[in-house]
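Why show two proteins at once? Because comparison is the fastest way to build intuition. When a single record is shown, students tend to memorize it. When two are placed side by side, the eye starts asking what differs. So, the first record is below.
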Amino acid sequence: MSTLDLYALDEAALQAQLKDWGQPAYRATQIRRWLYERGVTDPAEWTDLPKALRGQLASEASVGTLERVTEQAARDGTQKRLYRLHDGQLVEAVLMPYGDGRRTACISSQAGCAMGCVFCATGQMGFARHLTSAEVFEQAARFSAELAARGERLSNVVLMGMGEPFHNYDAVLVAIRRLMSDLGIGARHITVSTVGLVPAIRRFAAEGLQVTLAISLHAATDEERSRLLPVNRRWPLSDLLDACRHYAEASGRRVTFEWALIAGRNDGEEQAAALGRLLRGLRCHVNLIPLNPTGGYGGTPSSADACRNFIDVLQDYGVPATVRVRRGIDIDAGCGQLKSKVQRRARRATPTGSP
């Protein structure tokens, strides 16, 4: 692996490196323009740099460290990638195009996840390690470069891929700030999804960012939520909702609550009414997501009628809700699903008794 990763350097760090090489500081601006505005990642094509510097960059630096293992493309244009990290760990990233021009990257913050949510493929595989801030940032930067090269731009980023972002708080915060400064993505177009790490939510509120906070809720009582999301045993709904109110007040942003609609489990009028009572009066929006089934969980997605009825009940309590458009449904679009498939294939290909 190359000793210098350009995606790992912010502007000040890049200027310092160039100074060590005897180059003026303005070369950093030129390099960053090629990387982040034009989407050109081959130093040989950075024609306003001296030939000697281009050669030095080509031999001593890399643009990122992620190795693409495989990619799937859905009929709706969604692209899902599996990347191998330098130590062999695997993570996923997704690009979702929308008809209104939005281009949204869904990126990972950890290899695996320690939260153990029962319906999540990532939660089912357990935790391997945190990603570095550069590894988090690079997932979005790669999509951004490819879009820029064809005259488009990355407009939104959601940290909803593999891992719990607030379990990797410091690295994720650095990556968020670089999404803003280096890729030009406004805070309001960045979303962080958490299962509800209450101290981290309160800490995030003090950062002064207007990033959208999304809470994986999925149940409106402590008993049911603790069965689905073990983290609820440590921070029950009362603590979580207090932290969400605090974030909404501190940031001026409404909080998004994610609710995976599971047929016959949490999609009935009784559950909708309980959710309405729980969220009534809070500046929020409910994002209803028909379950994306995984091999480790037996639930199935709710019907269209159940989704509509759920929304109607929430409206009675003054709680706005919409059904998220299911992207990439004909591929392994749910977080962790592509990695799980690749790992199963690898196990099948390994003879019994092999190391």
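Second record. Ask yourself what differs from the first in the token line.
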Amino acid sequence: MMVKVVMYCTEVCPYCVRAEQLLARKGVTEIEKIRVDLQPGLREAMMEKTGRRTVPQIYIGEHHVGGYDDMAALDRAGKLDQLLAG
């Protein structure tokens, strides 16, 4: 059982797509997507929570991973699987 993955994203975001693809390769079948392009208030909430304004912003469980580049770096370091496993 993998931990919950939440991703703040927009519809047209190549890094969001890459993040989804990486997570799919890791066996993640469900991602709760929060579309900040549909409701500006959600972007404000994301910025308050993460301190960042770019998407994607990814949470694995309670851990704020950051964006796609941050998650890819965790994967290269061999730490992403551990986070996903909880």
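One difference worth noting in the second protein: The two ends are 8 Å apart (CA to CA).
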